[in-house]
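Table S7 (text form). Paired inputs.
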Amino acid sequence: MSRILAVFALLACAAGLNVRAAQTDAAHADAARADAAHAVPAADPAQAPSDAARAAPADPSADPRAALLKRLPAGSKLEDLRPSPIAGIYEFVQGAEVSYLTADGKYFFDGNLYDMNSRENLTEVQRTHARVAMINAVPESQMVIFGPSNPLYTITVFTDVDCAYCRKLHSEMAELNHLGVRVRYMFFPRTGPNTDSWKKAEVVWCSPDRNAALTRAKSGAALDMSKTCAGTPIAREYALGQSIGVRGTPAILTEKGDYIEGYMPPRELVQQIKDMQLAKR
């Protein structure tokens, strides 16, 4: 028992010494800090940050999106990624295609994102904004237009000269115009480059009267396939249709960017446009 007590005593003594040593060191440190506080540091221009350095922008590679670009298709840009309404999820937008990517880059998914309070399709909102921007970037001089002077509605239609339902829609142009619908055509030959439909679109574009040539072509009249020219917009419009997500023709887009897939009789089409407008109010 006495040996145990002696050990406890030695431990207590050592602890006391350590406490006193720590207190002494702390006092010395306080004194050193006090001296430093009263000292006037010498100016060192080499170490002082310049105004330019302080104002320098952050390294772009520090943007968390930079690492995510390595997991995305070639040609993707930082501006294609933006925060989504969900924390930790980025929205990836290319053309009118919208998909989603987790901030750690582990998961990628597409589909529609809905606001459960408003029941609004947030993904479709982004798609319509993108479609409007892309369509508005095309001057009307690059379109073939049929319409009244004071239209109630304007639609942009991606069309194929040989598409049966495109021809049916065009055959009802007088009724569409009478209902106040202005139709702006852009070409989307479904068979792609170097095909008869593509060549017909070029012939129509190169005609002195494009409206009349398009009407003849859609009625099945023979075209002089040698009457082509350079600088047609067919390739650009075909690529634009692909970016917008055109899957077939006629592909109809409203002024608000709503996508109407396929043919509709004139009165039904007008009603559909009205319903879409009301849904956005």
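Next pair, protein 2 of 2.
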Amino acid sequence: MPLFNRGQDQAGATWEPQAADSRLADTAGAKAGGVFTSDLSVSEYVLLGEAGFEPLGFVVGSSIYHVGMQVGRWSQNQELQVLSQAMYNARELAMSRMQSEADHLGADGIVGVELRMQMYAWGQEVLEFVATGTAVKAIGGTGVHRAPNGRAFTSDLSAQDFFRLLAAGAVPVAFVLGTCVYHIAHQSAMQALRQAGQNQEMIQFTQGVYDARELALSRMQAEAAQAQAGGIVGVNVAVSNHVWGEHATEFLATGTAIRRLAAEHRLPETSPKPAFTLGLDF
């Protein structure tokens, strides 16, 4: 099972602070009295402050990537490794550039990370991968909330879940992912005829989908271990076909890797706890 290298094809990610300099220069993280930008709701902004963090700026990373071609055997379940590598590299470029913007602002982390893909009319095989989030910093902090490598943590948790995680004595480490583009074998004409009108499991399809999902989950788990995390929360496995046809499918596993904080860095017991109030008026 090949595990893709985060460092591969990252040379192009070195320009992003300069590319976004005109926007980042006036944010709260770049100068005193600067204006912060964020994708936080009002409730999330208030709760972030209660957790002892302040927003610095809205950070973005983008990569427009040409996805290559690879031929799979018509009747065989197999991973399409060229496509898996392309989809991984493109997302990692976007994530790396978003994180570089956060580092440029001196952030301790990024919350509310969203990683999406979009297509343009000028190329069916050209895809843009965009990573966005809000860079945050602990008020009066000393960097203890950063990832073990000293860089800003990344997390797709909402501000509410981020607050609960801190209250429980843990902190995000990294938004981790694992991907696998897999060719699901076609059925032969004889197989289709034999099962016509019968209730039966389609073993070939089950095995292919199972193997592809396991590859994606294993790679996500390996990323968390490499980031020195203790676990992953909010795991999600998405299935997409993109532009390759119905039998070439991408399985994408994502989640937020977390680690435990020392007891002295936990939120105090007096910190307000999120509550939901249900009105009884009809």
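The first strand starts at residue 53 and ends at 66.
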